[in-house]
Specification:
This is Translation machinery associated TMA7 domain-containing protein. The protein has 1 helix and no strands. The chain is mainly alpha-helical.
């Protein structure tokens, strides 16, 4: 009777969580991305309701 010590896919080691330093530009970029996404969702919603 042999014991298997290695089985399946090996998992990567977990990275320690580090605080991300975000500049004002990064925050502004993310805000603009969110606004664009909302606009696109609203436009697609309007198009679906017109049909």
């Amino acid at each position: 009777m042999a014991l298997k010590t290695e089985g399946g896919k090996k998992k990567p080691l977990k990275q320690s969580k580090t605080e991300k330093f975000e500049t004002e530009e990064d925050i502004e970029f993310k805000r603009r991305q969110a606004e664009e996404k909302k606009k696109l969702q609203q436009m697609s919603k309007n198009l679906r309701s017109k049909k």
